């Protein structure tokens, strides 16, 4: 099955941003991982450019807030990326998130769908997780997270030489769990640090997924860190690094991102 990645990305972006220019909402704290607001962002990464569009919406409940976020990642990589790994100008991945937060108890719920266009075909994950804001401890805020997800995508088999080859069908590869947290440390009114570790592991599914679905193993610890500067009440600039227990910091993913709140 052939997928027109550009057509999918454009269609999703247009659908989500139709009312973006008409958004009117109270300004939110952009350093808060659980803040909900209409936004747009662009990132310069080691594998190309990223585009992010976020649209807040009325949940129908005055005590809750909701937001849809679409990210298009890794396009123009051959021209603009600086990674030593193979890059091209096509889209590397799409990510869609739906986030709801209860402002009374500080509890959030997130649906997270990530679709990657890989050498072994289109592969993706979809997860549902709960997030709880803990009481602030001086300059430190912690937001524990736990959830379940499913891995899906084009089926693949192992060839005689040990390589993976995509088949002309899609499968549900298996079910996984995730547990971790978002962490924020305020340095000044305009500067903050984030550290977001996530641990994921397989629960059930095919043998290849159960034994090697998490970077060649049945579980993996994932790290994300960020340094952020709030330029004004609507705009910030952020540096992100993503790596894992198997991929060191230097060989991980890096990006510089600018975000604007409408």
Characterise this structure.
Keywords: Signal. This is Porin. β7 and β8 (164-186) form a beta hairpin. With 262 residues, the chain is mainly beta. The protein has a single domain, classed as Beta Barrel (Porin), CATH 2.40.160.40. Helix content is 9%, strand content 57%. Strands 1, 2, 3, 4, 5, 6, 7, 8, 9, 10, 11, 12 and 13 form a 13-stranded antiparallel β-sheet that branches. The protein has 3 helices and 13 strands, in the order αβββαβββββββαβββ.
Helix content: under 10%
Q: Main β-sheet, in a few words? A: 13 strands, antiparallel
* CATH T-level topology: Porin
Query: Tally of extended strands?
Result: 13
CATH homologous superfamily grouping: monomeric porin ompg
Sketch the topology as an H/E string, one letter per element: HEEEHEEEEEEEHEEE
Classify the beta-strand content into a percent band.
Answer: over 45%
| CATH class value | Mainly Beta
Tally the structural domains.
Answer: 1
Number of helical elements: 3
CATH architecture: Beta Barrel
User: Alpha-carbon distance between the termini?
Assistant: 38 Å
Structural class: mainly beta
The low-pLDDT segments are none
Assembly form of the protein: single chain
Overall mean pLDDT score? 87
Please tell me what the overall shape is.
globular
């Amino acid at each position: 099955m052939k997928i027109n990645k550009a057509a999918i990305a454009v269609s999703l972006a247009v659908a989500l941003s139709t009312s973006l220019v008409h958004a009117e909402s109270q300004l939110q704290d952009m350093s808060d991982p659980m803040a909900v607001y209409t936004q747009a962002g662009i990132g310069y990464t080691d594998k190309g450019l990223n585009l992010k569009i976020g649209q807040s919406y009325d949940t129908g409940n005055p005590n809750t807030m909701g937001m849809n976020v679409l990210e298009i990642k890794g396009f123009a990589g051959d021209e603009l990326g600086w990674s030593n790994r193979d890059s091209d100008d096509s889209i590397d991945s799409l990510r869609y998130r739906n986030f709801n937060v209860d402002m009374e108890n500080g509890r959030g719920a997130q649906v997270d769908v990530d679709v990657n266009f890989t050498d072994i075909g289109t592969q993706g994950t979809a997860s549902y997780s709960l997030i709880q804001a803990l009481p602030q401890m001086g300059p430190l805020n912690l937001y524990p997270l736990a959830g379940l997800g499913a891995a899906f995508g084009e089926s693949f088999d192992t060839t005689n030489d040990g390589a993976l080859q995509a088949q002309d069908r899609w499968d549900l590869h298996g079910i996984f769990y995730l547990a971790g947290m978002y962490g924020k440390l305020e340095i000044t009114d305009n500067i903050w640090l984030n550290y977001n570790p996530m641990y994921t592991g397989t629960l059930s599914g095919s043998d290849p997924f159960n034994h090697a679905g998490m970077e060649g193993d049945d579980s993996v610890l994932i790290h994300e860190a960020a340094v952020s500067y709030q330029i004004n009440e609507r705009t910030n600039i952020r540096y992100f690094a993503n790596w894992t227990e198997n991929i060191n910091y230097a060989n991980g993913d890096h990006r510089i991102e600018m975000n604007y709140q409408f």
